[in-house]
TrEMBL record:
The modification N6-(pyridoxal phosphate)lysine is found at residue 59. Its cofactor is pyridoxal 5'-phosphate. Transmembrane segments: none annotated. InterPro entries: ACCD_DCysDesulf (IPR027278), TrpB-like_PALP (IPR001926), TrpB-like_PALP_sf (IPR036052). It comes from Pseudomonas helleri. This is Pyridoxal-phosphate dependent enzyme. It comes from the Bacteria. Keywords: Pyridoxal phosphate. Residues 19-329 form the Tryptophan synthase beta chain-like PALP domain.
């Protein structure tokens, strides 16, 4: 049955880079390790880290809608921005390679980390393999202004350029995760499970905003989503997420004012700042690897999983609850943090 959400989403052009739903699997060994079975709590993983292109990750869902608009407008060059180890930049480079577009990346040294692995390995190595042209800015540089400047240069030379802002987190990009809410609802029917909460990291807020807008339109409510902020403090993250959720809803033809309390964000895993490791993140990366043979990244999903572990250990969930942790990808980042992990082994 086509829902109101499906109908609203169908109005937007989308490039199908995902090629189908990502898997949901039960984290049985983690459930055992954390004593969740005895408590009657189920833990499931949505494998948005496992996709067909570029190493996978949450940014591909947003890029589907950005690319839909780009292809419709005959764009031949994409420019985007991010940190040196931006997963969004890497995936933009990968989809450009697949679609035969040129890709330019304006990367900022936003994390106080300058070792060789951080500067040259992980995502930045892959950006180059995918054929992107890279320009690096010092900390505090205005990457969007630099992107617009470069776009104008290229336009003057006859190119048709589109600039995608940080993380692809515009109302249009967020629709990728509104679509994911519909995908999760369909998988619930297939699996015979109801997820009481969907847990994610929050950086530029598009993932949270899209899921929240999607669940709102499905009648489940934006509060189905809980995120752990890894870029900004809790308050900044919450107001940005609420604003973007409302903009995404408006784009989908639903003009509602959301109460602040329906946007659930916890800022307690941020630590000393964006991209800076915490002991809880290191433990979370180890636990996921050793119990499930799966990888979470040091900047986003590692901190969010650390937050979820804290909630599970504190007994925040009740018997009968099923929690869905969205694995958002970013594993190339592990290679950029070799120093952090080799110290912890
Ligand atoms: C691996 C990974 N997970 C989560 C996020 C956060 O998503 P959002 O920026 O939509 O909040 C990002 C953003 O860069 C990411 O790269």
């Amino acid at each position: 049955m086509q829902t109101r959400l499906d109908k609203a989403l169908a109005a937007f052009p989308r490039a199908d880079v995902l090629q189908g739903a990502t898997r949901i699997q039960r984290a049985e060994r983690l459930e055992q390790e954390l004593g969740l079975r005895e408590q009657g709590v189920g833990l499931y993983l949505k494998r948005d880290d496992h996709m067909h292109i570029g190493g996978g990750g949450n940014k591909l869902r947003k890029l589907e809608f950005h690319l839909g608009a780009a292809l419709k407008n005959g764009v031949d060059t994409l420019i985007t921005v991010g940190g040196i180890q931006s997963n969004h930049a890497r995936l933009t480079a990968a989809v450009c390679a697949r679609l035969g577009m040129a890709c330019e990346l304006i990367l900022t040294r936003s994390v106080p980390k300058a070792d060789t692995d951080y500067e040259l390995n992980g995502n930045v190595l892959l950006d180059q393999l995918f054929g992107a042209r890279i320009q690096v800015l010092a900390k505090g540089g205005d990457s969007l202004a630099a992107a617009e400047h470069r776009a104008n240069e290229l336009r003057a030379a006859g190119r048709n350029v589109m600039v995608i802002p940080t993380g692809g987190s515009t109302p249009l990009g967020s629709l990728g995760y509104a679509r994911c809410a519909a995908e999760i609802a369909q998988q619930e029917i297939e699996l015979g499970v109801h997820f009481s909460e969907v847990v994610i990291p929050n950086g530029s807020a598009g993932t949270h905003a899209g899921l929240a807008a999607g669940f709102e339109l499905l009648g489940r409510g934006a509060s189905t989503v809980k995120s752990w902020s890894v870029l900004a403090d809790q308050q900044t993250s919450a107001s940005r997420t609420r604003q973007l959720t409302q903009e995404a809803l408006a784009l989908l033809g639903h003009a509602a004012t959301l109460a602040p309390q329906v946007i659930h964000i916890d800022g307690s895993q941020l630590g000393e700042g964006y991209g800076l490791p915490t002991p809880a993140m290191i433990e979370a990366v180890h636990l996921m690897a050793r119990c499930e043979g799966l990888l979470v990244d040091p900047v986003y999903s590692g901190k969010a999983f650390a937050g979820l572990l804290a909630d599970l250990r504190q007994g925040r969930y009740r018997a009968g609850d099923n929690v869905l942790f969205v694995m958002t990808g970013g594993t190339p980042g592990l290679y950029a943090y070799r120093d952090t992990f080799s110290q912890s082994l």
